[in-house]
């Protein structure tokens, strides 16, 4: 029985126990939150279902749907213009339009509050321009609204679709378009009838990433005073009503599962293959009279998503540095960020190895289950992971409660799959014959993994560690919920200072987060 499960090649006990232990650590916080919510009491469930949950459902669903549709439209259109047309500076735009990925939406929210907020630059300009006031009346923009949150999240999530759609467009075979053109189809008709069906998997992948991001976002939503499930969970926890927080968490977990199920179902129904054996690169289409319009469109997105936020941050950083913002406290926050993110990255690199090795070399329903459990925290918001860690550490491991180790473990639960994906890509290039040779010399599986395989795939593992490091530095809700007293990171300081409108203190920390986040962008651009 045991041998048949592993197809006659079972892993060693040490390797299997290590993998099972990692999967358990990854999934326990989520399972614990679900368990607590089921025993929160009928009264609490009824009270929340009567008033709070319907409103939160509407806020969360409407925002998620609106941002996803708009970001997909912007991402696909930009990818088409940059990859398939003769717009000037095509290579530059491919790099530049991916840059909003390195700007966390809560940092973007800070910059747009500074520009368009009630006491922002645009408001002051409007007030000081008499003809604007006389013609249009009072300042019309309310950044603290649905439309403000929608705009910010759209501007900083469209690159998910842009990157994946760009990769698909570059791999699209010209032969299909030529056949369509020979049937008398116009360029527009070819796009809708030929290109778009081939782009559907890329659009679906980008849309699911955006939807999950909007569901899980806390920083931008909280700063712009809009309440979705994540913000409500955090505020319930802050007021020590953990039972209500766990009930709201369960609803959000079910929402996440629903979105993942819809995506899996649509992907299974729609399959599009390029079956020809001869690949020919797609034509570069002339824009002709549409060139000025395309340049204006691309330039406007670039201005709104990159130039304006960076200009605002640089402006306030210069003021902040002049006022002594780069003091001992600032470097203390930076060191805290590096310490906890570095520790999380190191843990992820170590823990990812047994899981990807089991999945690749010892395929079975056990190794597949371990792999799936390890993804449990990745698809869920940081507030839920944070809540699970609070329940577990407060009740069962009090020695580690209120220490930075708890934050690092939350980061591991959230971002381990990033290290797994990078390591898995490298491991797929290493022949299993190397393992067999090492096993024939008497090495047990766990020793083969660390002594033979790890040195071969180290660059991929390190790339995964770099991705985890950057994601951890940007993570806000889990850090806010779990930090011990007096332990602030750069992300926390950006949130706290910006909430209190002390922009000259928030800007240098936000700028440093962006500069560090540029590091893995090269990896992402190579991947896509």
From TrEMBL:
One of its GO terms (biological process) is transmembrane transport. This is Ferric iron ABC transporter. The keyword Transmembrane helix applies. Belongs to the binding-protein-dependent transport system permease family. Residues 57-263, 334-524 form the ABC transmembrane type-1 domain. The chain crosses the membrane at residues 12-35, 55-83, 95-121, 141-165, 202-223, 243-262, 294-318, 338-358, 373-393, 399-416, 448-473, 501-525. It is a multi-pass membrane protein. InterPro entries: MetI-like, MetI-like_sf. It is found in: Cell inner membrane; Cell membrane. SUPFAM superfamilies: MetI-like. PANTHER family: FE(3+)-TRANSPORT SYSTEM PERMEASE PROTEIN FBPB 2, INNER MEMBRANE ABC TRANSPORTER PERMEASE PROTEIN YDCV. Pfam families: BPD_transp_1. GO terms for cellular component: plasma membrane. Keywords: Cell inner membrane, Cell membrane, Membrane, Transmembrane, Transmembrane helix, Transport. Its main location: membrane.
